[in-house]
Amino acid sequence: MSRTNPYVDYARMDALHALQEPRTGSPFEMSFILLSQVKELLFRMVHLEVDQARARLREDRGEAACRALSRAVRSQRVLIGCWESMNAMPADEFLVFRDALGEASGTQSFMYRLLEFTLGNRDTAMVRSADLTAFPELRAELARPSLYDEALRYLARSGLPVPERLTEREPSAPYTADEDVERVWLTVYRDPRGHRSAYDLAERLLEVAYQFSHWRAAHLLVVERMLGGKRGSGGSDGAAWLRTINEHRFFPELWTMRSLL
Ligand code: HEM
Questions:
Q1: Contact present, 50 and 72 (Cβ < 8 Å)
Q2: pLDDT digits (tens, 9 = 90+) for 136-152
Q3: Whole-angstrom Cα distance, residue 11 to residue 84?
Q4: pLDDT (mean) for 218-233
Q5: Positive or negative, the Cα torsion across 200, 201, 204, 207?
Q6: Residue nearest to atom 35 of ligand 1 (CA)
Q7: Which residue among 109, 123, 219 has the greatest number of ligand 1 atoms within 8 angstroms of its CB, and so is best to mutate?
């Protein structure tokens, strides 16, 4: 008898449950792999919605973009919740199978990087050049305007003074915070009723950025809990390196303009 039924067939559950190949006998390694896979799928869920939001902005459908971003936020909260499960593993149990990971590290997650690129963090130094070739979707994404690029273009089309050097910028270049954009967001927040759709978009974008930074902060705590000050399997200083990564903010002017409000 073949191992199938309509449910198993529809979403390929048999293939899904054949994907875990622990390298040691540790039951914690199985949980670690399962959680890593769950997180990868959730990165993809968030990416799906962020990509939708970007497409809706291009069509000047601000409300639909906001709905997509709200859906992204729900999946981001689930992603953060996954750390709860990860924390069930005591540090000594992690060490039982840690060596079996070799050089494998979350830094090599192309789905995570695709999500970062799509949102607007386009730091190619974070990606091994071999990975840019091995995962062509990364390079393809760099050629497209990011979600934030599309948001700024949307604001410009709605009459807000976003400079052309930003609406026409080279999409693959890393984005640097801009004082003119900060002033645009300030104008929006000083008169939310006069700029309803821009204000709603700003609030959704900030929530996505907040949840992303929250995920990074929780990851850092897990790393301190599991490794203390040890180096990472990807070759970094571990927690010390992640602390600097934690300072990055998506949509930077939405954060900095608060000091001027
Ligand atoms: C015991 C659990 C974990 C530990 C101890 C850990 C440790 C680390 C360390 C030390 C780094 C820095 C890079 C390096 O040298 O390896 C890192 C990066 C990273 N980890 Fe984890 N990690 C854990 C679980 C996870 C899980 C489950 C995911 C999601 C699938 C994940 C995703 C990432 C990502 C995406 C980065 C890169 C961050 C960035 O570049 O902004 N980690 N991890």
A1: yes
A2: 999 999 999 999 999 99
A3: 27
A4: 97
A5: negative
A6: 106
A7: 219
- Cα separations in angstroms, 3 against 14, 28, 96: 8, 27, 34
- 53: which 2 tokens? 């939001």
Q: Give the position, in ligand 1's atom list, of the atom nearest the Cα of 241.
A: 12
Q: How far is the centre of ligand 1, averaged over its atoms, from the C-alpha of 132 (Å)? A: 19
70: nearest Cα among 56, 45, 49: 49
Enumerate domains of the chain plus CATH numbers: 24-259 (1.20.58.480)
CA–centroid distance, 244 to ligand 1, in Å, is 14
Instruction: Give the pLDDT confidence of 37-90 residue by residue, as tens digits.
Output: 999 999 999 999 999 999 999 999 999 999 999 999 999 999 999 999 999 999
Read off the pLDDT band of 1 (50, 70, 90).
confident
- Residues recorded for the chain: 261
Residue reference for tokens 């048999």: 14
Cβ of 121 below 6 Å from ligand 1: no
Report the C-alpha gap between 67 and 49 in whole angstroms: 9
* 224 neighbors 231 (Cβ within 8 angstroms): no
Identify whether the C-beta of residue 18 lies closer than 8 Å to the C-beta of residue 37.
Answer: no
Distance 105 CA to ligand 1 centre (A): 6
CB 212 within 8 A of CB 76: yes
Report if pTM > 0.90.
yes
For 169-219, the pLDDT digits (tens) are 999 999 999 999 999 999 999 999 999 999 999 999 999 999 999 999 999
Q: Whose CA is nearest to atom 30 of ligand 1?
A: 36
For residue 94, which atom of ligand 1 is closest to its CA? 1
